[in-house]
C-alpha cells in the first residue's frame, strides 16, 4: 500500500489505491473512538430518559383517571 500525506493535516494519510483517509496518529484515533462512544452513550441515555418520561406521563394519566372514577363513585 502506498500512502500520501493529506494537505493541511499532518496526521492523516491517503491510500493511493482506495483513496481512503487513514489516521496515522494512534492516540488521536483512540481519543476519537472514546468521544464517539461517549456521544453514543449520551444519546442512548437521552432516549431512555424520554421513554421514561413518556411512561410516567401515561401512568400519571391512568392514576388521574382512576382517581376521577373513584371520586365520581363516592358521590
Give the uncertain stretches in residue-range form. none
Quickly count the domains: 1
Helices and strands, in N-to-C order? Answer: EEEH
The main pleated sheet reads as:
3 strands, antiparallel
- The shape is rod-shaped
Q: Could you tell me how far the N terminus lies from the C terminus, measured between alpha carbons in angstroms?
A: 85 Å
Share of helix among residues?
A: 55-70%
Strand order of the largest sheet: 1-2-3
Mean pLDDT: 95
Tell me the β content.
Answer: 15-25%
What oligomeric state best describes the polypeptide chains here? single chain
- DSSP helical segment count: 1
Q: Determine Rg (CA atoms, Å).
A: 27 Å
How many individual β-strands?
3
- The structural class is alpha+beta
Please sum up the structure shown.
This protein is α+β, with helices and mostly antiparallel strands and 75 residues long. It is built from 1 helix and 3 strands; from the N terminus they run βββα. A 3-stranded antiparallel sheet has the order 1-2-3.
